Amino acid sequence: QMCIRDRVVSTQSTWxxxxxxxxxxxxxSMSGFKLEKGESADYxxxxxxxxxxxxxxxxxxxxxxxYRTLFPISENFDDIxxxxxxxxxxxxxxxxxxxxxxxxSRETAALxxxxxxxxRGMVQAPREAQESIDAANLSFDPVESKVFHAQSMLSSIxxxxxxGNEDDNRMEEESKLSLLDEITNLKKSSAGAFDLVHSAxxxxxxxxxxDFVLFFEAEMSNVALADFIFPTSIIPNVKEILLxxxxxxxxxxxxYYQSKSSTYPLLSFADLVALLKSAKRVLDRNLTNVxxxxxxxxxxxxxxxxxxxxxxxxxxxxxxxxxALRKHSRLxxxxxxxxxxxxxxxxxxxxxxxxxxxxxxPNVRNADAKYNEFRRDYIHTPLVSEVLESHxxxxxxxxxxLGTCELNDVASFFESxxxxxxxxxxxxxxxxxxxxxxxxxTFEKHFTHLxxxxxxxxxxxxxxxxxxxxxxxxxxxxQLLSDKLIYLLELSRAALQNIQE
Length: 501
Hints:
The chain is mostly helical. It has helices spanning about 5-10, 20-30, 45-70, 75-85, 95-135, 140-155, 165-190, 210-220, 235-260, 270-280, 290-300, 315-335, 345-360, 370-380, 380-390, 390-400, 405-415, 420-430, 445, 450-465, 475-500, and strands spanning about 265-270, 310.
């Protein structure tokens, strides 16, 4: 792993002569590096050794962006405080801006240390008491006995016990995943079906077929099918094929890549190109990068969303359809056809189906497991529901503070309150969205706002990304998520109290 100074030097070519250009290049130049900033023991030392150099060399604006983006995320608060205390006396009289940032970070670390110790005690004590009760009652509950046995076996698997032996490590990883699945399924079988109606998720709406059709029609109203589907009389057939066979999967594909894009809720053009290049059978001699550029420009030329270098989901669907027709017209030309999209309905519909079913969808990643399965197995559970119900007071205060739960407001609060990276907040936000558009929002604004029920799911999803030393080791993933949710909510309570003070 490169140290920060080496990384900075290697990316100097991305820095423009003005501060605003440098700041805009920061996320791009650090995108593959910053996700590791909490994983290396050497990272804090590299950061604090380098930060003075960054401010001296590139000024306060770039330095602040660098600082905010790459400040070490660590639960070792004493180490962070010590490093700040050691660095501040070394700063020159012209580095007051950096000094102020460091003092703010020190205060935040001190507050989080107190909150962390308090909340960990709140979580750990009930867990230990429950474990004692469970151990005492094993003989009376055969399901719990099997769970206890699976957890014991899981605990016996030591990480990296066979360094250098890839086969053994792979077998151990498979065993861990198998045991985790077994524990989850055993707990679900003992708990029975989750009663959504009488839970903290009672406002959650499971979409009906009518709901889904309305959402689909709202989206497709922004796709200019008449511009490139001929004859236009088959447009209803195109829409029917999309709705019945491919739309849900396209949603999950877009969600997966959209949630990772720096332009959420849009997908950047660079991410779109990378997506298509990663799909093995999509780009070839019959469909090149030039064709992708042309389909993109044709779509954006009449699109309602004029943001440069990014597409919304309707534009994404339109681009896929344009590429499907372009590619298969070339194939027809190679087989003796005219090279134009066939006017015959069956041929045109076949081109779309062949592209989506055989070439595109099987070769890209989608969010179905993280979206639906994670919700079913870990969020819509009695444990998470109980935590949310018992913390209704703080959730109510959060909803009152955040109003319509607009993305930037939500991200700003939890970046500060829970010390979470914005990328993780955006991912939790994106995966918490449903296909329902509240009457108070337009279709476009739906993607950047959370309803109260979506906000509760967001809290659960974000808590899964929060690191809590002393709790993270639990083999029971449902219990772990509920413990982390308590921690996140108590951090939020402390942050709100600090704001009031």
